[in-house]
Model the fold of this input.
Amino acid sequence: MDKIVALCKRRGIIFPASEIYGGIANTYDYGHYGVLLKNNIAGAWWKAMIQERDDIVALDSAIIQHPRTWEASGHLAGFTDPLVDCRACKRRFRADHLEEVRNGTAEHPDLRCGRAPSKLPGEHADCDLTEAREFNLMFETSIGPVKDAGSTVYLRPETAQGIFLAFKTTLGFARKKPPFGIAQIGKSFRNEITPGNFIFRTLEFEQMEMEFFVPPSEAEHWHQHWMEQRMAWYVSLGIDPEKLRLRPHGEDELSHYSSATSDIEYLYPIGWSELEGIANRGDFDLTQHAKYSGQKLEYVDTASGDRYVPHVIEPAAGLGRTVLTLLCDAYDEDEIGGEQRTVLRLKPAMAPIKVAVLPLVNKEGQPERAREIYEELRELMPAEYDTGGSIGKRYRRQDEIGTPWGVTVDHQTMDDGTVTLRDRDTLEQERIPASELGDELQRRLAAPWTSPKLVRR
Ligand code: ATP
Done:
């Protein structure tokens, strides 16, 4: 993980926020390449949810909702973590995580005694643990100039509730009937005070959530459907299938709203951990909001006269956590000509930049020709033009941000119009006419792709 954190900082992919003030715990900024990578993941999610299906519509709901929302959803009373402090080593951890490790239902590799890293908190003679205290994770703020009880509102801790609040309105105009879904990507906020492990757990993070409303009798079928779809989606991003697994929650792990949840987990450098939760939320949310708002939140079939409260299947993923997953999965090191190279073996479709155009030398008209080629290519895909430093250095820079192809303009280009096209993974260099670059790169971008890390294994 340290190597990934260092690479992200070195290349401005992701770095600590408020750094000039010494940073702020569990809070990060995404730089240029980080934004592009994140957008590619979000784009792939929208494509799978909206473009490739016709039973889901999009939503972008407010971050600050009516405070009653969180009473109805159970977050005000129950969205808490049980926290324990060790008075001896000053570490803080979650009592539920300790319990899970003890009974073997989940792994939390970062949960260690501060005195003896091979032991769990509480196992060393010096350990001095407090009782668990319930700590609410919602951030409070207030509306208006006077801060009183009536002005308190909350930054949403999940995007899902905004979807339930918009269910009735959406049903009115979307011309859909169950089974149908509402999808959104947006920021959520949680006052996380245990160690974050880089961007794995942050105070603010983007969620990609979809609530799929179904007739109650079909809930199990759709739960199964979404577990399969979501696993396949991660594999389609190029992630190693052997580092992905589906883990059903035990009875004692289930949230207050859920009758069944399975987590998609990835084998991060910190161990197997949650990437996405896929829950069967039953009719809990719509029933609660109907009760608290006094509105009917149900589906009425005008033809048959049937009315029911749909059940909800929810695939809830973290966008930042998916970024981290791709970074961990793609990170690789090898050697070129005796020199060590760091390379992100991202699937080309996910790479922030697809092609870098580099003049071999900064003279003889090469920079001008390279810039022309770059300006043509950037109409087709994200491209970069780079003249700074030796050609080897420029390739290294592109390898580190996962750019799959490099185009070099050299003296031969000026004679016969051909360029060299270099492949990040095979390191093969092919000479092709510059006029064919666009077609060739688009063909490669659309071609099936297997990570060289898998081929090697
Ligand atoms: P965890 O057990 O890791 O705290 P959770 O079960 O509370 O997560 P959910 O409420 O199911 O998480 O949220 C859905 C997804 O949102 C998670 O699978 C994860 O990808 C992402 N997520 C949740 N909390 C955070 C966070 N603090 N930072 C980054 N991503 C998060």
About this structure: The chain is about 30% helix and 25% strand. The longest helix spans residues 32-51.
